[in-house]
Design brief:
Layout (H helix, E strand, L loop, with lengths): L3 H12 L3 H23 L10 H13 L9 H27 L17 H20 L1 H12 L4 H8 L3 H24 L1
Helix pairs in contact: 1-2, 2-3, 2-4, 3-4, 4-5, 4-6, 4-7, 5-6, 5-8, 6-8, 7-8
C-alpha cells in the first residue's frame, strides 16, 4: 500500500496542531528514515561508530522537537530529515577531527582504532563546507544535491519535491556536481 498520501495528510495535520498526528507518523516514516540513514552511512567510516538507528533517532528527535513545523508534503519532510542527517554526520566528523587534535581523550595509536579514517571525516567536513558555499551561491542546486544524494530521491521525486521539471533537475544536478567537483579539488590543493 502506498503510504505517501497518508504521510502527507499526517504531516499537514501535525502542522495544523494535531499532536497525535506526529505519534501516528512515527511508525509509518521510520522505515524510510532508516533507509535514508543506511544510504548516508553506506560508504562512510562513521558507520563504524554511528549506527543507522542512532542516526534515525537523533534526526527524528530534532524533527519532532519543532513546535509547529511548516511541512508542505512528504518530500519536504524527508528532505528536511536528510538535511538533518547530513548535519548530524558532519557534527560527528567534526568531533572526530577535534579528537585527532587531542580533544581531551587519552592518546591512542591510530593502529589501535580499527577502520577509523581521519581522511574520511575530513572529506565529510569538506563536502559540507562546499555544499554550504553552494547554498550561498545557489540554494536550489544545493537542494537538488541533498535530495538526490543524501535522501536517495529519484530525479522524478526531486522534481516533485522542488516543483521543477525533470529536465531542470537533471540540468541543476549536473551544474551543481561540476561546481562541487571544482570547489573540492580547489580546497584539496590548498
Amino acid at each position: 500500500m502506498d503510504s505517501r498520501p497518508q504521510v502527507t495528510r499526517l504531516l499537514l495535520d501535525w502542522k495544523n496542531g494535531d499532536a497525535h498526528a506526529a505519534e501516528q507518523l512515527t511508525p509509518i516514516v521510520y522505515d524510510e528514515l532508516r533507509r535514508l540513514a543506511q544510504h548516508y552511512l553506506r560508504d562512510e567510516h562513521a558507520a563504524e561508530t554511528l549506527q543507522p538507528t542512532v542516526l534515525v533517532h537523533e534526526a527524528y528527535l530534532k524533527l519532532v522537537a519543532q513546535d509547529l513545523p511548516d511541512w508542505q508534503c512528504r518530500s519536504h519532510f524527508f528532505g528536511v530529515a536528510a538535511h538533518l542527517m547530513r548535519q548530524i554526520l558532519v557534527d560527528h566528523a567534526r568531533r572526530h577531527r577535534s579528537g585527532k587534535r587531542g580533544g581531551g581523550v587519552p592518546a591512542l595509536s591510530l593502529d589501535e582504532v580499527p577502520g577509523f579514517s581521519l581522511e574520511k571525516s575530513d572529506d565529510i567536513v569538506a563536502l559540507d563546507d562546499a555544499l554550504n558555499a553552494l547554498a550561498q551561491f545557489d540554494e536550489r542546486k544545493c537542494r537538488v544535491i541533498e535530495l538526490r544524494y543524501f535522501s536517495g530521491f529519484s530525479v522524478e521525486e526531486t522534481a516533485r519535491a522542488l516543483d521543477l521539471s525533470v529536465a531542470t533537475v537533471g540540468r541543476e544536478q549536473r551544474m551543481a556536481e561540476a561546481w562541487l567537483h571544482r570547489e573540492l579539488a580547489r580546497n584539496h590543493e590548498s
